[in-house]
Design brief:
alpha/beta; five-stranded mixed β-sheet; binds flavin mononucleotide; binds iron/sulfur cluster; 21 helices; 495 residues
Length: 495
């Protein structure tokens, strides 16, 4: 029977993939995979042929007979679709290709070779490879992963932990979820390697509650891996579900939450690598960071390091979201420009109107106008323009966006999500909202704008963590690049 591949990622399921898969089932062998990340083509159906998989999408039930008969117009080979062809898939190489529950499929596509290699090389040499690869944490802060692992390995402690941060709270981001739904064994393997390297006996995956599909997929894959003995006798993994606070993505608040306490940020030092979960040395890494390690070990640290620019090495799974024509996940070496991503790859806005702004790096990221679209995707290049790469999310807005309203939203978000531990964030965010309201109402505009800038300075330098510390990025970028929106009395004040 012909083999047909249909994604079981939540993107695809909400767009009708289950019904499409059921319609193929009596006539073909249906393999449920993760998503290829081309959301506008979902439900995407791929038919196996001797030359490769031929793609069709978006597929409706009415298309099924013609696809089976070979008479339906296709998109050609999946790997030749320009959105796929322009990518360098390393972390997501298997996503959309394999059955996320089949360990045999995972191994047939190179899975578990990295764990074997790490055990052969030994912990110190494996950490050395991670260091040499130049891998930096993909959760947002971009801290070198090898250094974090070495610090934890060198720390004294009866017990050590690996904590995977799957809280993925940034707006417009879904890479962690897609990976957990499409290639969960790579995360399990990455965690097992991390555990082996630092001498940890237990790993926790902290997943946001808004991801029920990913939670279920990961738990099923974990049970398969455990039954097959993948984790060995010295390491185990457990998934825990957060209760829905953005700040619980911050590593120390996450640790508090894992310990069963209220998710409040801890002062640093001590670093989690020295005193983390239950006071023990702990590696906290993002899903993508951990899931990339197996690919680095099998593909070679030098090959990974050869991708990217400056100090941003390897690939970044960029997530295109918001008002964008070709939304989805695009993995490429660092260095691709923002304009290339939004216009050439994303195809501009879905509404067809001009792009006016993009917010990169989640709710704490800056709004960039098209005049900054030459900015390469690179931690340092974004920082030099008062922006953030963050977790790689890009949210696109057309010319109907009101940036004063977005700036107010940033302050409101901070006020709602603040853990309350420090004054600038807890109180400053509410004062910020009020001040933007006054500006929008035309009240002492110059004096209140100065006050807002002063408040942002206090937040930036006086906050304990990056929630309060980075909220000035969206506010000031809106003010600096879109000052005309703050002069519009019809804006926020009218609502
Ligand atoms: C307010 C706030 C929210 C955060 N949310 C996340 C998140 O959802 N996922 C994540 O991996 N890192 C998040 N981080 C970054 C983590 O604190 C930490 O740097 C990261 O988990 C470390 O993993 P990495 O080195 O692999 O990036 C957040 C940080 C802050 C300040
Ligand atoms: S900046 Fe905000 S979220 Fe961070 S510790 Fe202070 S009050 Fe808590």
């Amino acid at each position: 029977m012909t083999r047909v591949f249909v994604s079981r990622d939540i993107f695809s399921v909400v767009l009708g993939a289950n019904a499409v898969a059921a319609a193929f089932a009596p006539h073909a062998t249906v393999v449920r995979t993760g998503s290829r990340g081309m959301v506008w083509l979902e439900p995407l159906v791929e038919v196996e042929t001797p030359t490769g998989r031929i793609a069709y999408g978006p597929v409706t039930l009415a298309d099924v007979p013609a696809i089976l008969a070979g008479t339906a117009p296709s998109l050609g080979l999946t790997d030749e679709i320009p959105f796929m062809k322009r990518q360098t898939r390393v972390t997501f190489a298997r996503c959309g290709v394999v059955d996320p529950f089949s360990l045999a499929d995972y191994e047939a596509h190179g899975g578990l070779a990295a764990l074997r290699k790490a055990r052969e090389l030994g912990a110190a040499a494996t950490i050395d490879l991670v260091l040499k690869s130049g891998l930096r944490g993909r959760g947002g802060a971009g801290f070198p992963t090898g250094i974090k692992w070495k610090t934890t390995a060198d720390a004294d402690g009866d017990r050590k932990y690996i904590v995977c941060n799957a809280d993925e709270g940034d707006s417009g981001t879904f890479a962690d979820r897609m990976l957990m739904e499409g290639d969960p064994f790579s995360l399990i393997e990455g965690m097992a390697i991390a555990g082996f390297c630092v001498g940890a006996t237990k790993g926790y995956v902290y997943t946001r509650s808004e991801y029920p599909h990913a939670i279920a997929t990961f738990d099923t894959a974990l049970a398969v891996a455990r039954r097959a003995g993948v984790l060995g006798n010295d390491f185990d993994i457990e998934q825990r579900v957060g209760a829905g606070a953005y700040v619980c993505g911050e590593e120390t608040a996450l640790l508090e939450s894992l310990e069963g306490k209220r998710g409040q940020v801890r002062a640093k030092p001590p670093l989690p690598a020295h005193k983390g979960l239950f006071g023990c040395p702990t590696v906290v890494n993002n899903v993508i960071t951990l899931a990339t390690v197996p690919a680095i070990l099998t593909g070679g640290a030098e090959a990974y390091q050869a991708l990217g620019i400056g100090r941003s090495r390897g690939t970044m799974p960029v997530q295109l979201a918001g008002n964008v024509k070709h939304g989805g996940l695009f993995e490429a070496g660092f260095g691709v420009s923002l304009g290339e991503l939004v216009i050439d790859i994303g195809g501009g806005t879905l509404s067809g109107r001009p792009v006016r702004a993009v917010q990169v790096g989640g709710p704490l990221g800056a709004y960039f106008p098209p005049s900054l679209f030459d900015t390469p995707f690179d931690y340092e290049a974004f920082a030099a323009r008062d922006g953030l790469v963050g977790h790689g999310g890009i949210v696109v807005f057309d010319d109907t966006v009101d940036l004063a309203r977005q700036a107010r939203f940033a302050m409101e978000f901070c006020a709602v999500e603040s853990c309350g531990k420090c004054t600038p964030c807890r109180i400053g965010s509410t004062r910020g909202m009020e001040t933007i309201d006054k500006i929008a109402a035309g009240e002492k505009v110059a004096a209140n704008t100065e006050l807002l800038r002063d408040l942002c300075h206090t937040l930036k330098f006086g906050s304990l963590c990056a929630l309060g510390g980075f909220i000035p990025y969206p506010v000031l970028s809106a003010l600096d690049h879109f000052p005309e929106d703050f002069l519009n009395p019809q804006g926020i004040a009218a609502e």
